[in-house]
Each structure stands twice: as structure tokens, then as C-alpha cells.
Amino acid sequence: MPEPALPYDGPGAFAAPGPGPAVGPGVGAGAGPSGSTPEQLLDLDRDHVWHPYGPMPGRQRPLLIESASGVRLRPAVPAEGHEELVDGMSSWWAAVHGYNHPVLNEAVRTQLDRMSHVMFGGLTHEPAVRLAARLVEITPEPLRHVFLADSGSVAVEVAAKMCLQYWRSLGRPEKRRLMTWRGGYHGDTWQPMSVCDPDGGMHHLWSGVLPRQVFADAPPGGFDDAPDPAYCAHLRELVARHADELAAVVVEPVVQGAGGMRFHSPGYLKVLREACDEHGVLLVLDEIATGFGRTGELFAAGHAGISPDVMCLGKALTGGYLTMAATLCTTGVAEGISRGEVPVLAHGPTFMGNPLAAAVACASVDLLLEQDWRQEVKRIESGLREGLAPAAGLPGVADVRVLGAIGVVQLDHEVDMAAATRAAVRAGVWLRPFRDLVYTMPPYVTGDEDLARICAAVVAAAREG
User: Fold this and answer.
1) Taking a C-beta distance cutoff of 8 angstroms, is the pair 156, 312 a contact?
2) How far is Cα 14 from Cα 22, in angstroms, rounded to an integer?
3) What is this structure's pTM?
4) Site (Participates in the substrate recognition with KAPA and in a stacking interaction with the adenine ring of SAM): which residue positions (predicted)?
């Protein structure tokens, strides 16, 4: 059965809400800067704040965080006896430099003194121009043009719109479907949901409403495995059969993220590139989770030595400071759209190119590239392989896999999220398990001692979950 696409809080996420225990004991001591106690803030949270992939009101109390620095989160009150927790998630894979970084803080402060925002329609500014030029410089040729979006999901939405409008501008409006493979996840807005796994997570709720796309089987697992000839033939045949109606193929390269943390051979990307070229279909790579070094290459497309027609970036783009994403395309795509009946890309977010976000994104990219990031990711990969190895012998563990700064323990059952999270917090680490997975994507600045602690927490969570 295809894997669910969304990291929701297990099968009970939609049950009638109950009060639920706090992750840490003793909530209620002390008062926050607003004068409210942690207990009062959590009560307000439960009454009014709708958290991602959860019911309203929430079934479980979130952990109230008052500050973060380096790779540590500081709860408002001690959690399971810990005044600080090592962050094993990079705040959903974005905070690659950790928290409260002086270089990134200064970039935001300096820009804030100049201007926090101006509209991008008819105006431009240095941070956005520099960021676009930097992204063109570091991404694969021939990506040359950058559309700055609000979030990763919107970046994929823009990519789909680019591809659909490209073919419409060329007089081929019938090329309006997208192809992907099962097990993927591309975000929660409309077109991205349509290319997420159709049977998993919560997106099956929209069956019959979302556009009907073309789905290949999920790619065989195993980054180091040779490409399966039968699966390669399956991809080629599907592209050929639907070429007349396909605008684009949209996939996550090498790592399927929130759809199941599955790794696949880069060889399948080469097959898709060749098939798309042969049959006149655009190729879109969603590098929102994999970009900026997470898999050991700056962009996961580098493992295959290919370049897409459109690439989506996000998450680590700003180092986790502010929401911003980017959709890059080739000159061929841009010129095709600009020759059409409507010679503009019909998309324009209010906060497009936000100067604060662009400034910190420039600083984050420079900070990454000025370091030996590749060696740091290799160091983390080695630590994850060593530290997660004991999990392979646990009852209920189906697989342990590591690629770059990604470590995954897959169970043979749905994880007990509350129990697994509590076990990780007892070990002094923040993790966010989902479905049948306990995984970590730590900040690149995580030291060896903290990395070992994260691994021990993953193993503990897998044992309890």
C-alpha cells in the first residue's frame, strides 16, 4: 500500500479531543514576559491555536518554547527534567545553522534598519536581486530565472503554473496534467496536493476534487542500489503513453521527504530526464527538503548529474529565520510563457521578495558555502550511521537508513507518537515522529556529543513507540 503523504498525529488525530498530558511535568510555574504563566498560555493555545496536522482543539499539549540558541531549544519550564533540549529536527529541516546565529541575526537587524518590506510589483531592492543572482550561480545550468515565493508549497504551486502556462502559451493547452510517482509529498496547497501520494495521509479526502494526475509506482528503495530495469521501463512507458497530455513530471529527487523518508537511486532521475526530453515534457524537481546540502550534494540533482527545467527551493533557504521559497526555471520556459497570449506569469504574492527574508537568505547561503559544509554533512552522516545502528536490533524495527544529514528508523507499525516523543524528551532531545517513522534531520552545526545524544533519543523513541 502506498505510504501516507502527511505527517499527521496518527490514526487518533481526528478523535474527540481530550485534555492530554503536557510533554513535561510542572507546567504552570513562573510567568512569561507577557505576564501570563505557561499554564495560561497553553490553555489559550488549546482554545485558539490550530496546529499543523492536528484537530481543533488539540489532543496533546505542545511543548512551550521560550528561546532557542545553537542547537538547543529552551522550554518555558523543564521538560522531563531538562532545561534545554537538543533539536533533532532543524525545525522541520530549515534551521541548518541552528538558532540565534550572530551572522544571520545581524543580517536581519541591518536590513530592518533600512526597510522591512516594500511591494515587489514595479519595485525591486538589493537583497532580492542579490539572492536571485546567487541562486542562479549555485544551481545547475541552465536554470537562469528566479520567482520568489512565500513558502515551499507555493513554490511548487508556481512551478505547476509555470509548466501549464508554458504549454498553453505554445498553443498546446491539452498538455495540462502532471505526472509523479507514488509516495511523494509536495505541500498542502492545491496543485501540490494533487501530486502527493493519492492514497496516503489526509489528501485522499480530496479525491474527486483535485486535478487527476498520472502516477507511476513508487521508486524502489535504496540510494546505493542499481536502478531496476523494469522500473526504468515503467517510467519511460508512462511518460511516452501520456506525453500528449503531460505538462510536466514533478518529483522529489533522491529523498521522498514527508511522504515516507524513502531514498531511491539517482539513476531514476536520469531516466526521467531522458524520457522528458524525448517526449517533450518538462521536468520539475522539488528540492525544498533536499536543497542546500542535506543529502551530501548541494542539490540532490547533483547525485544524478542532471538539471531540471524547473526547480523548487525552500526550508533551509533562509536558515529557518523567515518564510521564503524560490522557483527557478530555464530561459526556454520563461521565454515560452512570455510569448503567450497572456505574456506574464500570472502570480504575485503580496510579500514576494520580502527584503528581510531575502537578506537573511543571502546571509544563510553565504554562511553555508563559506564553510566546508560537505565535510560537516559527511561527519553527521557517519555519526548517524554509528549511532542509529543499535536500532536495527529492536523488536518492531523494519529498517534503519541514513543519507547525508538524514537518519531514519522505520517501524513495522504506526508509531505511538506521544510515547515516542516523551521518550526522546526524557533523553534530552526534541524529535517529531510521524506515521511509522522516527527520524532526525539535525542542524549541520550539531557537535558530535549532541549528535550521539540525538541518536540515543531516536533509538529510545523507536523502542517506546
Assistant:
1) yes
2) 19
3) 0.92
4) 53
